[in-house]
Amino acid sequence: MDNIETYLSEILEIPKDAITTCSGFYVSKKVAKNEFVLREGEICLDTFFVEKGLLRMFSLDKNGKEHVIQFAPENWLISDRSSLNFNEKSKFYIEAIEDTEVFILGNDFFTKMIENYPHIAERNDLLLQKHIRNLQNRVNSLLADTAEERYMNFIKMYPDILLRVPQWMVASYLGITPESLSRVRKELARKNFEIS
């Protein structure tokens, strides 16, 4: 079973005998490493479900510095919700960090799903609320937590991607320099060594 099918049956609670019907609501696309599925200034028309691989969303400031907003490994959804829902030009880029396979969920994907399976409206609302909670926690962490605390939060959020993501991207996500990230990692290693 594909990850998308597992997502539909286990997360959205679509009956297993209806999964095949749902496949008409999305399309598969292979995205090469360093290829973009969204660029700043474009209107985001889709949500991307990562079947295999890894995407990242980032913005560029006026000096050309990248700020990583989100990573999306397998089983994650990623989209620019402001652009998607309000037809605004995107302020973000979404790029493949690895060769990636995505399922493209059109703007009306969840509307169609709810029309066919009304019970998922509540599940979808819960997922949206969790997403908002995670964004609030991330903003608070950037404002209030130490670099070490932010790094530990990153490991909890993305336990399986540390070896797949360049350290400078992790530092960008954490809002610190690569040098600061290196110090944080050394300090954590020292503390763990002392505890052992």
From TrEMBL:
It comes from Kaistella chaponensis. One of its GO terms (molecular function) is kinase activity. Residues 26-131 form the Cyclic nucleotide-binding domain. Keywords: Kinase, Transferase. Transmembrane segments: none annotated. The lineage of its organism: Bacteria, Pseudomonadati, Bacteroidota, Flavobacteriia, Flavobacteriales. The keyword Kinase applies. InterPro entries: cNMP-bd_dom (IPR000595), cNMP-bd_dom_sf (IPR018490), RmlC-like_jellyroll (IPR014710). This is cAMP-binding domain of CRP or a regulatory subunit of cAMP-dependent protein kinases.
